[in-house]
Design goal:
There is one protein chain. The model has no long low-confidence stretch (mean pLDDT about 90). With about 140 residues, the protein is an alpha+beta fold. It is globular and about 40 Å long. The protein has a single domain, classed as 2-Layer Sandwich (Heat Shock Protein 90). It has a 5-stranded antiparallel sheet, with helices on one face. The two termini are about 20 Å apart. Helices cover about 30% and strands about 30% of the residues.
């Protein structure tokens, strides 16, 4: 059971890719509230950027009238992140394997692969009005 230490981010914003550029800086500013090693911090930035980009690009299809919710909290087991979009949902098991020979030259399809590789836990679920991707990243 994850014991909550502190909520770091709880915001909802338009599906605007410009939000991605400020995300690393916002996370850096929060490191004092939830200390973590450099490698784990960089993994968190990569994973959260991928998840938010997926919500904007694939879930909400860059429709700025649709919103993305971002929730990040420091818990005893790591950093718990929730990204919700207003899209139609997807089955992560149906995403093509990006390291399969026939997919190596594909321009996309690596986001969920990266998220799976760099997180301790990953859950994807269809929710009312969208999709929720929830994961835990290591702190130490």
């Amino acid at each position: 059971m994850n014991q909550r230490e502190s909520v770091l981010i709880d915001e909802t914003f338009q599906s605007d890719r410009r939000r991605l550029s400020s995300l690393p800086r916002d996370l850096e500013n929060l490191r004092s509230k939830c200390p973590m090693g450099d490698e784990n911090f960089h993994n968190l930035v990569i994973v959260l950027t991928e998840a938010v980009a997926n919500a904007i690009n694939h879930g909400n299809r860059r429709d700025e009238s649709k919103r993305v919710r971002l929730f990040v909290e420091c818990v005893s087991e790591g950093i718990r992140c929730v990204v919700e979009d207003e899209g139609e949902g997807f089955d992560p098991d149906e995403i093509a394997d990006p390291v399969a020979p026939e997919n190596l030259l594909s321009e996309g399809g690596r986001g969920m692969f990266i998220i799976r590789a760099l997180t301790k836990e990953l859950h994807v679920e269809k929710i009312e009005g969208g999709t929720r991707v929830e994961f835990v990243c290591a702190r130490s």
